[in-house]
TrEMBL record:
The gene is yhbN. It comes from Caballeronia insecticola. Belongs to the LptA family. InterPro entries: LPS_export_LptA, LptA, OstA-like_N. Component of the lipopolysaccharide transport and assembly complex. GO terms for cellular component: cell outer membrane; outer membrane-bounded periplasmic space. This is Lipopolysaccharide export system protein LptA. GO terms for biological process: Gram-negative-bacterium-type cell outer membrane assembly; lipopolysaccharide transport.
Amino acid sequence: MNERFSRPDGGQARATLAHRVTHALRCSRAVLGAALASLVALTALPAHAEKADRDKPLNIEADNMSYDDLNQKNVFTGHVVATKGTIVIKADRVDVTQDPQGYQYATGTSTGNNLSYFRQKRDGVDEYIDGNAVRIDYDGKNDFTKLTTRATVRRLQGLSTVQDEVHGSVITYDGQKDFYTATAGKDVASPGNPTGRVRATLAPRSGGAAPLNGPPAKLSPSNTIQGTPQQ
C-alpha cells in the first residue's frame, strides 16, 4: 500500500530559512557591538602607573642655599618648601642631587620637635597621600618616598578628609605601584604602645565610606518611597 506524505510548502521553508539567517546576523551584530564597547571601555581607562610628577621641574623656596659642585648637591635651609608637580616637601633642610640621567633626589630633614612634611596626589582620583616624619627621602627616578622616624602617612579624600592613617618608625610609599609599607620602632613607643608597634586606622573601601574624622551618619525615614516591597 502506497502512502503519500505531504511535502513542506516551498514558500514557508524559504521564509523560515530567511528568518534564521536574519536572526543569526542580528546576534552577530550584537556580539560584535558588545565586543567593540568593551574594547572602547578598556581603552578609555587611565593608566594608573603613569606619573607626570617626575617630569616636572623642581621649585624650591628657602632662607638660604649653598651649592656643592664637587658632589653636585644643592643644600637649602630655613623654612624650605620644595614642589615638583603635585609633590610638596616641607622641612628645615632639603638636600637635592641629580643623577647623570637627570633624575632628581631630595632629602628633607627637621630638628627638635619639628617634623618634615610630604604630599603627593594619586593618579585619576581626587585623593592625596601625605605624611610627616623627621626625615623624608624622595627618589624621583622611581617615584619612591621613604619617611623615617616618628612617621605618619595618611590617605586623604580631597585635601582634608582622612580615609586611612598609618603610624610607624619607617613608612615607604611607592607612587608607581600605589603601595606603602610600615615598620615598627622604639621612636614611636608611647605609654599605650610601649614596643612601638605599627598602628593603622583604615576606612572600608566600599562606596560612600564615612571619613575617619567626621561625625556619625544620621538616619531619617524617607517620605518619597511608597508602596509595599516586592517579594
